[in-house]
Amino acid sequence: DRDGLLACYNGDLPYVRDGIILYNREAHYTLGITPLMLLWKDALCSQYFIEVKDPSQPLVQVVSLEMKENGSLCTSDDPPVPLGQVPPPFVEKHKIRPGMILRFTTTDVGFMAGPTTEAPPVPYVSDLTFLGIGSRRSHADCWSKLIFQHMARTQPLSIEEVVQRAEA
C-alpha cells in the first residue's frame, strides 16, 4: 500500500537502505531470479543507484555476460538470455573459454520487435566494448539488472510513479 511503500522509502531504518524490493503478491515463488520481483532504486534510497565505471560518463554501463559453448554471450537468467556472439578469432586472441564471464561497456540496452507481429520483443545489447575477463568469483548479470540500469540512466522511474502503479 501507499503508506507502507513510502515508509520503506522515507522511514528511519537501523541499517543503510539500498533500494526497495518489490514483489508480485499474487504469485508463487521459488528460489532464484524471477521476473516477479524487482530491486528498485533511486539516488535518494541507494548510494549505489547506478553502477558507473567512469563518473564523467554516467550513460556508459558495464555489463557482465557469460560465454557459452557455442560462443554466445548470455545473462545469468534461467533460461539464459542470449545477447550476442563472440567471433572465434576474438576467442582465440583473448584465450576465452566457455563459462568465462566477459565484461563490456555499452550505452544501448533494450528490446527490438520480434520477427513477426505475434512474436514477443527480443532483448538486445549493442555497442559493446570489451573491458576484459571477469574474476573467477564474478557472475553474469541478469536481464532485469541490465534493463533497470539502462532505464535508470535514461528514463528513471520516480517513487511517485512506483506508488501510483502500486495503487492501481
Describe the structure.
The protein has 168 residues and is of the alpha+beta class. It is built from four helices and nine strands, in the order αβββββαββββαα. It has a five-stranded antiparallel sheet. Helix 1 runs antiparallel to helix 4. The protein starts with a helix and ends with a helix.
Largest sheet properties: 5 strands, antiparallel
Distance between the terminal alpha carbons, to the nearest Å?
Answer: 10 Å
Helix count equals 4
Task: Let me know the average pLDDT.
Answer: 90
Order of helices and strands: HEEEEEHEEEEHH
Please supply descriptive tags for the structure shown above.
alpha+beta; 26% strand; two-stranded antiparallel sheet; globular; 168 residues; 4 helices; 5-stranded antiparallel β-sheet
Write the layout of secondary structure elements.
Layout: H1 2-10, E1 20-23, E2 37-40, E3 61-67, E4 72-74, E5 82-85, H2 88-94, E6 101-106, E7 108-112, E8 122-126, E9 129-133, H3 143-154, H4 159-167
Helix pairs in contact: 1-4
Summarize the structure.
The protein has 168 residues and is an alpha+beta fold. Helices cover 22% and strands 26% of the residues. The mean pLDDT is 90.
